[in-house]
Amino acid sequence: MSSTIVLTGGTGYLGSRLAERLLEITDHRLVLLARDPQRARQFIDAWGADGQKRVDVVPTDLRDGTIEGVARDSVTHVVHSAALIFFNVEKLDAQAVNVDGTRAVTEFARRCPNLQRYLAFSSLYSAGTRTGRILEQPHPPESAFANHYEWSKARSEQEVLDGASGLPLTIVRPGTVIADGPDGRVTQYNAFHNTLKLFFYGLLSLMPGDAATPMYLTTADFTATAAAHLLLSPRGEGIYHLGPDPDETQTLGELIDQAFDVFESDPAFRRRRLLRPEFCDVETFRHLVDASRSLGTSPMSQALQSVAPFAEQMFKRKHFDTTRLHAAWPEHPGTDSPSLTHAVIDRLVASRWGRNQEGTSWT
Amino acid sequence: MSHFMSDTGSEDGLAQAHLHGLAHALGHRKSHLAESETAGLLESSAVDLLSSGFAWHYRCEDDQSAYDLALAAVRALPEGSLADGADAIIYSTCLPGNGNIGTAETWRSSRDVRHLMEFPASHLQAELELDRAVVIGLTQQGCTGFLGSLRLASSLLASEPEWERVLCVTADRFPPGSVYEQSFNLISDGAAACVVARSPGTFRILGTHHITNGGMAAATGEESIGSYFSYTQLLVRETLRRTGLTMADIDWIVPQNTNAAAWKILSRMLGIDENQVHMPSLPESAHAISSDHAINLSDLTASGRLRKGQRVMLLVAGHGLNWQSTVLEVTA
Ligand SMILES: NC(=O)c1ccc[n+]([C@@H]2O[C@H](COP(=O)([O-])OP(=O)(O)OC[C@H]3O[C@@H](n4cnc5c(N)ncnc54)[C@H](OP(=O)(O)O)[C@@H]3O)[C@@H](O)[C@H]2O)c1
């Protein structure tokens, strides 16, 4: 009997890349649990003959609480990447999709008799506002969080750890994905890109945070490759941090300086003589976000609201340990953070934040 | 004492300039911003502007000109301010069009550009019989024009040994049909006047500073706000450096009337108490273009809270983009 990998979030940024990679490196069948089967079909078409032959779609909305229509006996791997990933997600939505949805997927995995591995996507920020060294281990229960997204990812991890105890389990905690790969191409925009955009267009001159805070930035290629490796490797069980090693990170201050160095190579930017932002405390930044509400629905106000829920993290110095990842994936390629961020910022400036690319999302 | 002062007390001349008398005049038509919203005079919603601290504003009646406001402001100066005449009139306007009394219609019908240079400062000189005064117009400093005139007046007193006093006037009204909002600020038509003189007055001018960033000459409201915090901090830092002072030496900040939250933010960034920021006229008279400082500083003086020796920093940002500051020391 051929192996089947069931994947949630296969129409997502990371899930679709992981699916493509699994098609490449295995001959397993893939079942995408997708709430929009038509959208899923578009991805499958893009994956060519392999996609047509080896991928099925089962319409599934995680908010329904159950997963039906999959022959469980054939399932050898379950990958759960679906989630609402906006930092400003409402708590009830985060609960419904990220927490209750994870419970449903975990329940499904538990009832697959031939399961070889259940891999769930968490996030580095499931650690909440803790500081210091953070190990590839379950988080202590009493964490605090900067936003409902983080809270829901921590709760979702707990759902997996509780519901899948005794199962062959992998939890991956990716860093903030800022590019598709090391060449800096961006197809998913998030608070990182949004903040730089505000600086570039002169709409923001305050930076909440501590210049010394390390930034855990990574790529979709790295994350998908690592997840695929851990999913299929017999040594891949456990919790893993998917991002740069602490000594590979850039600090927030270095990142801002680098961004402005790149910005200043653009003649239009240089002409406007925008100053580098001043670092401010979180309370000051909250005043700015509150004040921006009186600017109505202006782009500045909208962008600030989307960045705000993440601001507190810019003060929280964390050192995400990657010892387990290195042990399970010795050929791990490492991250050249300055070169990655330089490539990303270069492209953002040149493409004016992808103004000409259709269908980019703003998270 | 700041190292700004040399032994002669006039390292760059500004130390000898004093501010005498401050007066202002506002448009005659007072309205609540809810009424102005109904009349289509706003871009933002009245609710948003209310949440920024604005409430009322003053507009000119149809027959009231910027020049009328200027005249009213000068006439409101303390009695005798100009008894000995003036050596110069610096007349600043935010809108260059307010630097001309003639109308575009008269120019169009006559095709004579004379109607585009009927200078209000000359009219003011004649009207007030300030025969000795030469006139100077400042029309490209946006809302910072009034502080620009203090800077220029101080420099002129330093470079013209025979001069005793300079009348500084600023006056603006928005043309009929305008939106009464700029960069999310509710606007009032207004004028202000003061005398900068060599003889001691209420305040001594300790120093001034001015930054222009022409790269942002066409900045939108959002861009102006975006750069407001970093440039205001740069302005303050450079002003302190130039005057040899530290933030701890500054007892009061008098800014232009702007979103109340802006100074919640800036006072934290500059490390001063919010109560040291004096902007009480915001709900009553909105952003009266270049006249806010005259209004707020008069209020601070009248409040009885100023003490001899205290230092007041006036700060303003305006189109161009321009940022200007003046540091005053209470002497009277
Ligand atoms: N991207 C990052 O920077 C990052 C960083 C750390 C961790 N992560 C984690 O990585 C995982 C994947 O992230 P991503 O960037 O790929 O996110 P994404 O691009 O937003 O994709 C989310 C996926 O979840 C699906 N989904 C959302 N609500 C659903 C529902 N009610 N029922 C079924 N499917 C639903 C979406 O389906 P539709 O296509 O129908 O919307 C989509 O396929 C998430 O668990 C996220 O928390 C991401």
From TrEMBL, chain A:
Alphabetical list of InterPro entries matching this protein: FAR_NAD-bd, KR_dom, Lipid_A_modif_metabolic_enz, NAD(P)-bd_dom_sf
Ketoreductase domain: residues covered: 3-245
Write down the Pfam families for this protein, in alphabetical order: NAD_binding_4
Q: Which Gene3D superfamilies match?
A: NAD(P)-binding Rossmann-like Domain
Q: Return the protein name.
A: Ketoreductase domain-containing protein
Q: Which organism is it from?
A: Kineosporia mesophila
Automatic annotation (TrEMBL), chain B:
Name the keywords, alphabetized.
Acyltransferase, Transferase
Return the InterPro entries for the record.
Answer: ACP_syn_III_C, ACP_syn_III_N, Thiolase-like
Question: Could you tell me which residue ranges the Beta-ketoacyl-[acyl-carrier-protein] synthase III N-terminal domain spans?
Answer: 140-214
State whether keyword tRNA-binding applies.
no
- What is the name listed in the Swiss-Prot or TrEMBL entry for this protein? Ketoacyl-ACP synthase III
Q: Which is a Pfam family this sequence falls into?
A: ACP_syn_III
Sequence ranges assigned to domain Beta-ketoacyl-[acyl-carrier-protein] synthase III C-terminal in this UniProt record = 240-329
